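Table S2 (continued). Query chain:
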Amino acid sequence: MTEQALARVAVIGCGYWGRNLVRNFSDLGALAAVCDEDAELARQFGAKYGVSTPVFEQVIRDSAIDAVAIATPAATHAAVAEQALMAGKHVFVEKPLALDVGAAEGLNALSKKAGRVLMVGHLLQYHPAFLRLKKLVRQGDLGRLRHIYSHRLNLGKVRREENILWSFAPHDISMILALVGAEPDRVSAVGSFFLQSQVADVTTTHMSFPGGENAHVFVSWLHPYKEQKLVVVGDDGMAVFDDTQEWEQKLLIYRHKILWKNSLPTPDKAEAEALAVSPAEPLRQELAHFLDCIAGNASCRTDGNEGIRVLKVLQASERDIRAHAYQMRKKANPNRHNMTGCFIHETAIVDEHCRIGKGTRIWHFSHILSNSVIGEECILGQNVMVGPDVSIGNHCKIQNNVSIYKGITLEDGVFCGPSCVFTNVNNPRAEIEKKDQFTDTRVRQGVTIGANATILCGIELGEYSFIAAGAVVTKDVKPFALMAGAPAIQVGWVGHYGERLSKDLVCPGTGKQYSLTTNGLLKPENGGRRTEDR
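Corresponding output:
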């Protein structure tokens, strides 16, 4: 890096990896500011490195800051990079460039239009051992490339916001694409979900290239020991880049050959040869390259185009992993596919001997236990549990995080708000089995139950009654009664339309007239017609 390459850089994000950017930009003499949502963390780094700690909006407005380096969560990369480019800043963004190819292409086009450097942090393309390996391949020292495989394995760091594919594999995909010099024409992948149902812990990605080369990437954060190894197999030799070894052993070449003896392929093994590699911190090399690109002294090695190529492989791998996971769930849970005319999300589970009505939709992570019956045109939101042996009528809507236990019956048109609660035992104890004490609860036609309301077992909710959000219902409810409070008490009446009736028992939404019977129950007059229509 030359003196004229010096630019003023603000680091956005001072967390697990961002602090390494801060340190290296400071050592390179380019650090101008640090920025983090945690203001106290930013102040600590600002004080340590003697730089300002503006908020992001101040960074992109500051004409004295030439560039930003983004180390925020992956889901925010595209939005933060876009704002910085639109403000005229050069941008270094940690991998991945974005979470989808379309967003990455938009950033790339924006950088070209603005005439600004857009560089992606594919760190290992700046590792001295990889650069030496890349030179070997380019010079033909290994002969024609045949196969490349990479293992990036460790115990942790387990993430929740991104899976192992997006966390580990971009490094290896980037190296493989650089060695082959082409994009794959076929990508397939499988994954395993051990700790979290939607976050893969282990993935294997296979790539086939137009020139006949093949590659695979195996990544895991559930591995007993650390392994970071790239193996390149050619006709005339094999090379191993092992980043866990000391510098003098990081890059080995094996001049193995396959000899044909008596029409049989026979290995002719050779001793490993260690190739000299000059020690250097890859991140320092990478960030120095970024500064050189800003100064116009270098062409960006991992630019937006390269970031897009890597994203295409990641996105194709993710689709295939999800498809394989879906197929596995389909095999493990065949019952959900024996039901026609309804929609059951791939993450939902339907046990044996259940019936699901036409037009019903069952969404993410719901579970319908055995011998349950759900009517037509119902909607069950995310994380709904029904059964076993539960009956739900037609046109019911059950929103997220509701459990309908054995002994509870919903008639037609019942609405259950988010996280409302049904009980089936009056005095449960975790350590005492009380399944023989389950008490039936019946919810009559047209009832509405608000969010977070609790319905104790053994009671009946009368038709078209309305239970307010957060109410705790401890006794039977009359038809059309409006209930609120804990414990719930009747605070008024509602009509079929769900509107609270006026003092003269007229529905403000429909104009229907209601009246009270001698035993204190509400009923619609003349079939509920408007009084002026009689």
